[in-house]
Write a structure and sequence with these properties.
Length: about 350
């Protein structure tokens, strides 16, 4: 089980707004939590947070989890004070109308609702359509443009209000488990190895990356600057244990089945094998995922950094990706952290990464 103080960290980390490009509040929480466990912690000009154990030791193992999430950005204020917005990241537009949101302004959080023409006022044809983003607006309850402008600035980000809610057993829902869960595990691995530092024969750098959702941008720069020998990305992957999913197309992954170890061209075969052998030796449940090409994760940027990094990818099973209520099993997070700690103990100067 995840300890109660780790769970508390996860909840306060999730409570921070962190849309791509606006990750600073979440990164501050991540660094506060992680700093006591590491030899050095720093932030680069993109906002990536990097935490080091044995910074001068080779081989060096990089773990990444991206802390950015989907969001919205205020683009235009009309004469009546209604706010029109752009999307940050890959939204399912059908889920956007009718939501409560928080706009993150220079003067603090501002509540709003995403408005849409009522069903009674739509033609039968319009009722079948998904609205386009410019047909939706945020209503903050003001009288006119001037009042809106006194509160909100063009470019202010907004996020859904949905937050952490425990479900039955060890399941929980929240917005932004993609990929706050991954960045949480990076910190948790550093915490767990901090008491066993002298037993490690490798260096470790954990990075809470930025701007993954808009093109793996934080991983691209931090995989270069940290110059690792091995780089493992922690990101969510689709659980397929719910209705209306075709396993013949996407494979079989379930919540509570343990970390999903990815295999394919994006993944160094030696890293993959060592992850599987470690899970078996430590009796940690795991699942497998096949990805025949570059993945849409930080692992892709890591593999292609510098002269090529030995990349790995661990998927955290998640239902309803990119919706306001993503669902995970907290036990999977615990098992993933255990797997990576055991993996680190098996890495040393004799580790062969050549396929
Ligand atoms: Zn995502």
């Amino acid at each position: 089980m995840i300890s109660s103080d780790a769970l508390q960290f996860l909840q306060s980390f999730l409570a921070c707004p962190s849309p791509s490009g606006y990750e600073q509040p979440a990164q501050a929480v991540w660094r506060d939590r992680t700093a006591p466990f590491v030899d050095r912690i720093e932030t680069d000009v993109h906002g990536n947070s990097m935490a080091w154990i044995h910074p001068d030791t080779r081989p060096r193992v990089l773990f990444t989890g991206h802390c950015d999430e989907l969001g919205f950005q205020i683009r235009y204020i009309d004469d009546n004070g209604f706010l029109y917005f752009a999307t940050i990241g890959g939204h399912d537009i059908g889920l956007v109308p009718g939501r409560t949101v928080t706009i993150h302004t220079a003067n603090g959080p501002l509540p709003g609702v995403i408005g849409k023409r009522a069903i009674h006022l739509m033609s039968p044809d319009d009722r079948k359509k998904v609205p386009e983003i410019h047909e939706l607006w945020i209503d903050i309850g003001v009288a006119d443009k001037a009042e809106a402008q006194s509160l909100v600035s063009i470019g202010d980000p907004a996020t859904y209000d949905h937050s952490f809610k425990p479900l039955r057993g060890s399941l929980a829902s929240s917005r932004a488990f993609d990929d706050r869960a991954g960045a949480f595990i990076v910190s948790e691995v550093l915490r767990r190895v901090s008491s066993q530092k002298s037993a490690l024969r490798c260096g470790v750098v954990g990075v809470s990356t930025v701007q993954e959702e808009i093109g793996l941008r934080g991983a691209t720069t931090s995989a270069f600057s940290t110059s690792p020998d091995i780089g493992i990305a922690l990101d969510v992957t689709h659980a397929t244990d719910h209705p209306d999913v075709d396993k013949r197309k996407v494979g079989e992954v379930r919540l509570g089945g343990g970390p999903v170890i990815c295999r394919g061209a994006n993944i160094n075969p030696r890293v993959f094998t060592l992850l599987v052998e470690t899970a078996k030796a430590e009796s940690i449940p795991f699942q497998l995922e096949a990805e025949p090409r570059g993945t849409g994760t930080d692992a892709n940027a890591i593999q292609l950094a510098r002269g090529g990094i030995a990349a790995g990818l661990i998927g955290l099973p998640l239902r309803y990706m990119h919706t306001p209520n993503e669902v995970i099993d907290l036990e999977d997070l615990d098992q993933t952290a255990s797997l990576l700690v055991a993996f680190l103990k098996r890495i040393g100067p004799d580790t062969n990464l050549i396929p």
